[in-house]
Specification:
Elements (H helix, E strand, L loop, with lengths): L3 E2 L1 H8 L10 E5 L5 H9 L2 E6 L9 E4 L2 H8 L5 E4 L8 H4 L13 H11 L3 E5 L9 E3 L12 E6 L5 E2 L10 E3 L2 E3 L16 H8 L7 H6 L3 H14 L10
Helix pairs in contact: 1-8, 2-8
Length: about 250
């Protein structure tokens, strides 16, 4: 990890609004409903998403298909690549309560890493805490003033970003634990029981307003994370770089 800085310091230094013309293109692999995509868009990228499943709520250009096949064929058309391979194989729930189900989930991180390196573009790979990623940057909702914790690990290829200070959490995640109700400033954006909160609670906690699909919200990352990383990435890229059109 590189120097520890404040989140707002980086956003102010780099600037996140570069206008709608001449934006660098970023390829968003395993894009789901677009939590990462919206952050990169806010940072100044033109984002194109790819997912094996239809994503009707994805807010930008979308292609249904195999993420790694698309990267192999079209990666040269983009200035940078982000990938969020499915996290179920690495999640705490699978490692603990649901160990018997571990074999059902594909482990796509090694193949994704190899494809990202082969693309020759600067890249980001994101996943949950238990994933076998290099911990170049670890982000938490508290760093951005969000009412969700949602730690996520980011491995970076071909560039670096500053690691924000990991602020002390303000309290508990609200909800039931073993039959007891606990109050706290954070919303549990996952599951369906235990006082997890309404869809509007989840949207507000995550900073997501373009989808109300509960599963999509549960699987997303807050756009604030990739807005922060995107600010760094724009700094890395030559603002005048010409990327071949599709």
């Amino acid at each position: 990890m590189t120097a520890v800085v404040g989140v707002q310091e980086v956003l102010d230094w780099f600037g996140c609004s570069v206008g709608h013309s001449g934006r660098p293109r970023l390829l968003d692999l395993y894009c789901a409903s677009g939590g990462a995509a919206v952050g990169y868009h806010r940072a100044g990228f033109e984002v194109v998403g790819v997912d094996i499943c239809d994503q009707p709520d994805y807010p930008f250009e979308f292609h249904r298909g195999d993420a790694l096949d698309y990267l192999t064929t079209h990666g040269h058309e983009f200035a940078a690549v982000h990938a969020s391979p499915p996290c179920q194989a690495s999640s705490a729930l699978t490692a603990g309560t649901n160990q018997a189900l571990a074999g059902r989930y594909p482990q796509l991180i090694p193949a994704t890493r190899a494809a990202l390196i082969g693309s020759g573009r600067p890249w980001v790979m994101e996943n949950v805490q238990g994933a076998k990623l290099r911990r170049d940057v670890v982000l938490c909702g508290e760093m951005f003033g969000l009412n969700v914790i949602r730690h996520r690990v980011f491995e970076l290829g071909g560039w670096t970003a500053a690691q924000p200070l990991h602020l002390r959490h303000r309290g508990r995640v609200a909800g039931y634990r073993h039959g007891d109700r606990f109050d706290g400033p954070y919303v549990a954006v996952y599951g369906s029981g235990g006082g997890k909160g309404s869809v509007s609670d989840w949207q507000a906690a995550m900073g997501i307003d373009w989808t109300s699909n509960r599963r999509s919200l549960a699987e997303a990352i807050p756009p604030a994370y990739t807005q922060f990383l995107g600010a760094h990435l724009l700094r890395h890229l030559d603002p005048d770089v010409e990327v071949p059109a599709a």
